[in-house]
Amino acid sequence: xxxxxxxxxxxxxxxxxxxxxxxxxxxxxxxxxxxxxxxxxxxxxxxxxxxxxxxxxxxxxxxxxxxxxxxxxxxxxxxxxxxxxxxxxxxxxxxxxxxxxxxxxxxxxxxxxxxxxxxxxxxxxxxxxxxxxxxxxxxxxxxxxxxxxxxxxxxxxxxxxxxxxxxxxxxxxxxxxxxxxxxxxxxxxxxxxxxxxxxxxxxxxxxxxxxxxxxxxxxxxxxxxxxxxxxxxxxxxxxxxxxxxxxxxxxxxxxxxxxxxxxxxxxxxxxxxxxxxxxxxxxxxxxxxxxxxxxxxxxxxxxxxxxxxxxxxxxxxxxxxxxxxxxxxxxxxxxxxxxxxxxxx
Length: 345
Known about the structure:
EC number: 3.2.2.31
Largest sheet: 8 strands, mixed
Strand content: 5-15%
Keywords: 4Fe-4S, DNA damage, DNA repair, Glycosidase, Hydrolase, Iron, Iron-sulfur, Metal-binding
Shape: elongated
InterPro entries: A/G_AdeGlyc_MutY, DNA_glycosylase, Endonuclease3_FeS-loop_motif, Endouclease-III_FeS-bd_BS, HhH-GPD_domain, HhH_base_excis_C, HhH_motif, MIG/MutY
Cofactor: [4Fe-4S] cluster
Structural class: alpha+beta
Organism: Pelistega suis
CATH superfamily of the largest domain: Hypothetical protein, domain 2
């Protein structure tokens, strides 16, 4: 019987994706960048960001030598901004401690910021011909359905990894195999309406045999996602808007955003302390993070006199930015959307 690995390789060669901009390279920098961007983000979204990022930062040394504040605008909109901060830290370590060359061993790669087992294994396989498997959402879906692996959590993840390492023992060209698994999960073994008739694994697939495609992989136990609220202030004067730099740690760390107040009582107090200001409430909207929902209440602030000194507003770490520069700033996606669609701006 043809091995699991060879079936995936043969399918990838004939039917897999071959047009992605990070394919066909053994440059660890390019593979690493694509792997980090693809975490929690769809391929179609990543492509433009990846190309724009590479054009600005063509090497790990170029990235390391750029202040993180200048890097963030090229990540804005991708979300999960800790990835960008770790990306920059990792680049600096590779540039200084490894003389600009990524380690070739997966175990060494995992010591770098933001690089987990799957990313390290991917870099080692694609760039250094290591026999190291990967494990992303697409691979998990293929494995759970083919092998009939049920359950959710650390125990199931351990079982999946054990199977992954078992599969590659004694095999070659693992880079193509890893790519094939990702392609198969993305193109054929999809979450809903999988194209089983096109799958090279169908004859031996547990889920196909027992009609369990809809229940595998096992669903994550549902939990109530808490909701938080914030008031965002759109403070403008002439053709500028006041933006505040967020702390390095936490949500939207290091990005520019609109000044925020906790609740309406705090807003009323702030307006009382600044009698020349007028507030106009806008339609509230919700932004969903992985672990909570944020209900945003935008408030447009205008003044009877021209605002020149932001310090008088008692809001720290702020600066006026021309409205014409909004599209090039490192702004969280809901803030960018809010400023881009406000007819008053």
